[in-house]
Amino acid sequence: MIGKKKAAKAELNEKTDIKTPVSEMIRKFKKQKNAVVALWFIVFLVFLAFFGELLAPFGINEYDYNSILQGPSAAHWFGTDEFGRDLFSRIICGTKISLAVGLSAVTVGAVCGTILGLLGGYYRGIVDSIIMRICDTLFAFPGIILAIAIVAILGSGLGNVVIAVAVFSTPTFARLVRGRTLALKNSVFVQAAKNLGASDSRILFRHILPGAIPEIIVQFTMSVGSSILTASSLSFLGMGAQPPTPEWGLLLSNGRNYMLTSLHCTLFPGLAIFLTVLSFNILGDGLRDALDPKLTD
To answer: Where are the alpha helices (DSSP H) in 71-157?
Structure first.
């Protein structure tokens, strides 16, 4: 009787220990403490993006000429700028702008690059040659130089910054998805789908694309950080957000004239950019390790 109970308990434990791909990924990700901390910091940023204006103790354009360039204090945690505006309020409200620009630009680039990569890798021939030559041309320019050129043509503004960042993000996703498509197009399940009469679109989006999702997720996460950095750089150069928008790069640009006397005007916006970009990069590294089936622990 005791032996049967032990056997039943062992069988139950064996059933509950069945590992699915998602549970295995979560288990491996939880072991990477830095990536977990980065994820929670990004969740905190998303929270600020939605509720920052409600949490801000002052209005983003609330001028106080009696408090110009004051250092951090109990009333103004991050100090004030050259117009007496509260830097803490402007930075947390600017979170929404910086995240929106970074996420929307990378999303557009990921969608366009994924479609181009699927088409080039699946059809090959002239389609692949045209797509890859365009990607090679875009890769020939440093990302920030290409973004500056596009914004110079289209004009300054956050909308054009999104377009510029999306353009130089597209080739990376196209190359990534194309390589995965080439690896999967001759697989057994794809050939079986062809023999059953599946259309090309169904094969591309139902059979090949899911195999590239892990790589796309990792690249997407790491690209967001670089996109935020590029968008901030354009705003710093006066080609992105325009005053009085509380975008982080613009805050950094406004404070550079007061670095010697009021360091806080550049310190805190710079820290916001640094910590955000660092968090997305660390999260991307953690997801890459968690999604790689070749890595065991």
So the answer is: 87-123, 125-139, 143-154
